[in-house]
Amino acid sequence: MNNPLRIVIDAVLVIAVAVLFYLHFANKPAATPARVRTVVHTDSTGTATATNELEAVADTDKIAFVVSEELLNNYQAMKDARKSFEAKVKGWSNQNDAIGRQFQSAIQKYQQQAASLTPEQRAATEQQLEAQRVKGGQLQQQLQQKAAEEEARMTKQVLDRVDKQVALYGKENGYRLILISAPSGTIAYGRKDLDITKEVTAYLNKEYSAKKK
Questions:
Q1: Do the Cβ atoms of 20 and 182 come closer than 8 Å?
Q2: Domain spans of the chain?
Q3: Mean per-residue pLDDT over the chain, rounded
Q4: pTM of the predicted model over 0.85
């Protein structure tokens, strides 16, 4: 009964740092480069006139990646989620400690009175203590489950937001592919000039700050 909520405390330290987003956009990017082409028009008299026109060109080679751990650690939405979760963890830990203290107090009281109790009274008290132990264990399991569910909910909420905003960033900046470099080794190697973690993080924080106002 004195065991701490291991899953709760562990969840405070790490909230889904590793995540893979694979964003591949079939449509043309919002901002596409252009090239000049010469078009020759011939009128009814047979006179040819050359004009220059801009022709849109799909940027099929623009790819980049972001480092998931760096992005999430510097994303204000994740920082706020962690802070909120830690506050809830503190409340759950206090409840867990209270359950343990109540049971220990009941045990100590029984030990102090056991010598003066009849065999029937001892048996009844021990039965009550066992029922209290079982109930306390069930309450602690409920706290653990609540912590796990809350961790999953908050993590999903933040990652869904990241997924959406990275997609918007990719479209607005003409990317066809943005990869996430995660600790699991999704990307073995990437040139530093393809790392847009800082730019994407700034973009996410700007959007999050504006939405909070």
A1: yes
A2: 6-212
A3: 78
A4: no
